[in-house]
């Protein structure tokens, strides 16, 4: 049986951030996840925004963590080489009724200790964002709302944790947690049992099912679906800020913003559903995005879409972000209610969890040789011609462009496969280096990526999955 | 950085680039260079192993590889230079410079007397046409599947539904059947066929594959791999009739829902693009809005017959060579080609009126199918060219040969009129 000190269940943004934080200490950590790749659920299909927490419920743990997390991103994205940009958000009021809500929203921001929110007149907003509905009456500017590459954030946290000694057991579903005498004994997975002192449940959508295994499920997770459109980089109508609607009682509403790579993102819907696996988009959902976002940005051209997707945010019932440790179950830590702000608060949650563990007596001592920096894969398309030339001279595979739309070279794909926590599937390659993320959506590069993966992993093409087991790309050879 | 000089630089070594290179050479250009991103010439024809090419041009039925080989052999004989495995990143139309990457030479700069764009096109995807549902494995564009099957000898699935009755879709229906897959049906949104009639007969009817006109896929199902699709008939506004939706089990969905000229380089160079064709605006010399840059083949407008591509590309190669040699015809003015009744677009988009008297072919597509028609080119009331056709189909390109000396006035109108 494997032995460790801490098992983190769930390799999403939160799990990986906790693992990275733990890797600063002399402690053995294994992260387990049912998916074949890190960041495989909510962390990969969201709006890719780093929030300020201006609109959180004041005084809650969620508010504290989001507000604390936002300023941490300058340093962490620099250290871990994660694409990140502080572009700011605007909240335009189109109707008089919306306009009358602005002071209350600003006051809420104040109560959340987000002090840099500013009033802007309609004219000022139109100057900042010319594509805005010309009827805009005025609005708020939230300067520190930011955009990030959510895939790279999770990979970077995981990679850095791994470099610092954390093990990742992927494709391993937790089936049971054994306890005895009010203490954690072991975690049973489909890839074997792990004896451990601590278990951290950061299983997101499935955190209620994990909690159930130790009898601590006093809540349920309800999947809230969000559907999105991604638009082509050259779409006619673009915005420079995160353009947010004034929230209603029911929902935060649908936004439009640039992605860190220059596409436009439009959405999401908010639809509660019983299934935790159904990530389908629907005609009705997609239509509702069109209708709503046109109120904010009338000329948004959804015909320039290159993809649509949906993500499931794990909403808690009863609501609220919860951190729990239990007197009658030593070593078990339960996180629940990590929802749409989960990506943002992940890095603060990492610190919070470890601090709580230390406070309650965990005997972790700081490592002396912690490696705090990570260098990402050098993107050929973003280099100057001279650097490009040098890159090809040093590694000729940089001269072999595989993904035409995003100009991704074979050298980048090879690195995605062979780095720590390497890519094993077509989507894992895509999330690391963007091959297949462009306008042809893998039409040209897909067949080549399958070929490269099979070659590098030493398997048959029919063993290559799009994502998880069962998602085989091809069925075999021709006659 | 590696530097090359040439008279005519041609981006793309598919049928368009090859035909342009040959005619540039024949026109007298000394050094003609094809820059190709693949490891061989031929472009998409390499994966088109079925017959049906060359009926117009050679009066015989060739496979894709046979068709392009004739051109590749000729280009080789004439001493056309070829740079393989080289992806063009950008062009500078003022400096007449092409930048590309190549594993062997690194970043490469090509100084040319003129440039021909022959990059072809790419396929519209499931996402472009917004088909809802999940995003499992097993969803391919017909062309990607064709590449996997024909060039990599890999089968993409066992039970297939195809959306779109374009030529590639129908050809892949046959190909997948021959390879032992079950093609459940071909679904077409319009109430008429998108591709060539001969392909319907040879690829669907002969293999007993049902064609569902005026139907669409309303949803894709399956979490890891496709498990099926919902198919519904559409009303006159192309909206699915939900009550008649049916579940069709399959593990693979192929999309053959149109092609889009690949103009990333063209756009970056600031060359004018036509809204309908999504390709550069050209005159009859296939010259774009930047005088040193020419364009031909599917990068200009999507063709159904490669024979037409070859013809149009020869024109581009010829005049690109003349431009590089300083022998380009001086034009007095350019007049637009206007789309008249039942015409979706005309290529070339405009005609340059020069001292030289010449005959030029106008290629165009109709908006809707029509029987017993007359194709007409006229300047004002004056008909300058016309011919009769039994049937005009959006999927089959029409053409008219026009004598440019007959053109009078400020525009030329192309129209399709119903014959009694």
In words, what does this structure look like?
Chain A has helices spanning 13-22, 61-69, 73-80, 96-111, 122-128, 150-163, 207-213, 283-296, 342-359, 385-394, 410-418, 426-433, 445-457; strands at 2-3, 6-9, 29-33, 49-50, 84-85, 89-93, 118-121, 138-142, 146-148, 167-170, 174-180, 183-189, 192-195, 198-201, 220-231, 242-243, 255-258, 264-267, 271-273, 305-317, 322-326, 329-336, 401-403, 408-409, 476-477. By secondary structure, chain A is of the alpha/beta class. Chain A folds into three domains: 2-44 and 150-219 and 319-359, FAD/NAD(P)-binding domain, CATH 3.50.50; 84-147 and 222-314, D-Amino Acid Oxidase, Chain A, domain 2; 380-463, Arc Repressor Mutant, subunit A (Orthogonal Bundle), CATH 1.10.10. In chain A, helix 1 (13-22) packs parallel to helix 6, helix 1 packs parallel to helix 9 and helix 11 packs across helix 13. The model of chain A has no long low-confidence stretch (mean pLDDT 96). Chain B is 20% helix and 35% strand. Chain B has helices at 15-27, 55-58, 64-78, 142-150, 167-178, 197-204, 264-268, 306-324, and strands at 2-5, 8-11, 32-35, 51-53, 62-63, 81-83, 86-92, 97-102, 106-111, 114-117, 121-123, 139-141, 154-155, 159-163, 182-187, 211-212, 215-221, 228-233, 246-249, 252-255, 259-261, 293-295, 331-339, 345-347, 350-354, 359-365, 370-379, 382-392, 398-403, 412-418. In chain B, the strands form eight sheets. Chain B has a five-stranded parallel beta sheet, with helices on one face. In chain B, a hairpin with a 3-residue loop joins strand 8 (97-102) and strand 9 (106-111). Chain B is globular, with a radius of gyration of 22 Å. The termini of chain B are far apart.
């Amino acid at each position: 049986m494997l032995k460790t000190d801490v098992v983190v269940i769930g390799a999403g943004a939160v799990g990986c951030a906790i693992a990275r934080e733990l890797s600063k200490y002399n402690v053995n950590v294994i992260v387990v996840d049912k998916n074949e790749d890190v960041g495989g659920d909510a962390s990969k299909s969201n709006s890719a925004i780093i929030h300020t927490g201006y609109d959180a419920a004041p005084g809650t743990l969620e508010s504290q963590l989001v507000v604390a997390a936002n300023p941490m991103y300058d340093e962490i994205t620099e250290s871990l080489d994660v694409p990140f940009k502080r572009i700011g958000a605007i909240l335009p009021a189109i109707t008089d009724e919306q306009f009358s809500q602005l002071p209350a929203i600003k006051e809420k921001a104040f109560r959340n200790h987000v002090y840099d929110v500013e009033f802007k007149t309609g004219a000022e907003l139109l100057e900042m964002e010319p594509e805005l509905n010309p009827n805009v009456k005025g609005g708020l500017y939230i300067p520190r709302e930011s955009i990030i590459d959510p895939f790279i954030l999770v990979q970077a946290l995981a990679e850095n944790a791994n470099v610092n000694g954390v093990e990742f057991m992927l494709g391993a579903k937790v089936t049971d947690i054994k306890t005895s005498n009010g203490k954690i004994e072991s975690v049973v997975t489909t890839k074997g049992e792990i004896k451990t002192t601590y278990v951290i449940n950061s299983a997101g959508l499935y955190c209620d099912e994990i909690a159930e295994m130790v009898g601590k499920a006093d809540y349920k997770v309800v999947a809230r679906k969000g559907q999105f459109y991604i638009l082509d980089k050259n779409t006619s109508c673009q915005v420079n800020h995160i353009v947010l609607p004034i929230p209603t009682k029911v929902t935060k509403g649908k936004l439009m913003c640039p992605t860190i790579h220059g596409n436009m993102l439009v959405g999401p819907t908010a639809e509660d559903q019983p299934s935790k696996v159904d990530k389908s988009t629907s005609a009705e959902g997609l239509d509702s995005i069109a209708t709503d976002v046109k109120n904010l940005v009338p000329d948004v051209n959804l015909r320039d879409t290159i993809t649509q997707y949906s993500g499931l945010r794990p909403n808690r019932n009863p609501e609220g972000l919860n951190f729990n440790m239990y007197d009658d179950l030593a070593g078990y830590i339960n996180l629940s209610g990590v929802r749409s702000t989960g990506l943002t608060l992940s890095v603060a949650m990492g610190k919070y969890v470890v601090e709580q563990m230390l406070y309650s007596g965990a005997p972790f001592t700081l490592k002396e040789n912690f490696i705090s920096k990570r260098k990402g894969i050098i993107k050929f398309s973003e280099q100057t011609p001279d650097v490009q030339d040098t890159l090809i001279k040093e590694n000729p595979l940089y001269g072999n462009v595989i993904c035409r739309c995003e100009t991704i070279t074979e050298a980048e794909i090879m690195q995605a496969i062979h780095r720590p926590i390497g890519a094993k599937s077509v989507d894992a390659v895509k999330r690391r280096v963007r091959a297949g993320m462009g306008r042809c959506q893998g039409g040209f590069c897909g067949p080549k990526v399958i070929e490269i993966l099979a070659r590098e992993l030493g398997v048959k093409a029919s063993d290559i999955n799009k994502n998880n087991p069962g998602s085989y790309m091809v069925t075999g050879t021709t006659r | 950085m590696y530097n090359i000089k040439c008279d005519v630089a041609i981006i793309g070594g598919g049928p368009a680039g090859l035909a342009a290179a040959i005619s540039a050479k024949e026109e007298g250009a000394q050094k003609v260079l094809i820059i190709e991103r693949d490891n061989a010439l031929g472009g998409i024809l390499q994966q088109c192993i079925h017959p049906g090419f060359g009926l117009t041009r050679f009066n015989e039925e060739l496979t894709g590889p046979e068709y392009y080989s004739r051109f590749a052999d000729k280009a080789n004989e004439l001493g056309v230079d070829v740079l393989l495995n080289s992806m063009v990143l950008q062009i500078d139309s003022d400096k007449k410079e092409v930048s590309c990457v190549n594993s062997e030479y690194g970043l490469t700069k090509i100084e040319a007397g003129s440039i021909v764009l022959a990059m072809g096109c790419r396929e519209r995807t499931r996402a472009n046409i917004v088909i809802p549902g999940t995003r499992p494995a097993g969803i391919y564009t017909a062309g990607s599947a064709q590449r996997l099957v024909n060039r990599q000898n890999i089968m993409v699935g066992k039970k297939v539904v195809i959306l779109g009755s374009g030529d590639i879709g129908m050809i892949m229906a046959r190909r997948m059947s021959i390879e032992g897959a079950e093609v459940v049906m071909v679904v077409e949104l319009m109430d008429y066929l998108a591709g060539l009639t001969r392909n319907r007969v040879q690829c669907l009817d002969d293999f007993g594959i049902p064609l569902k006109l005026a139907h669409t896929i309303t949803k894709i199902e399956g979490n890891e791999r496709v498990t099926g699709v919902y198919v519904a008939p559409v009303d006159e506004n192309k909206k699915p009739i939900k009550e008649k939706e049916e579940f069709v089990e399959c593990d693979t969905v192929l999309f053959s829902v149109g092609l889009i000229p690949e103009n990333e380089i063209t756009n970056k160079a600031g060359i004018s693009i036509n809204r309908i064709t999504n390709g550069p605006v050209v005159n009859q010399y296939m010259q774009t809005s930047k005088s040193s840059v020419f364009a031909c083949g599917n990068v200009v407008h999507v063709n159904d017959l490669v024979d037409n591509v070859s013809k149009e590309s020869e024109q581009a190669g010829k005049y690109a060579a003349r431009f590089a040699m300083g022998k380009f015809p001086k034009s007095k003015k350019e007049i637009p080609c206007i789309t008249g009744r039942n015409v979706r677009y005309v290529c070339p988009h405009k005609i340059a009126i020069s001292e030289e008297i010449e005959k030029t072919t106008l290629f165009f597509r109709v908006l809707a199918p029509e029987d017993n028609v007359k194709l007409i080119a006229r300047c004002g009331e004056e008909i300058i060219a016309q011919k009769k056709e039994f049937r005009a189909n959006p999927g089959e390109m029409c053409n008219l040969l026009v004598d440019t000396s007959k053109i009078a006035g400020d525009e030329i109108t192309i129209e399709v009129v119903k014959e009694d």
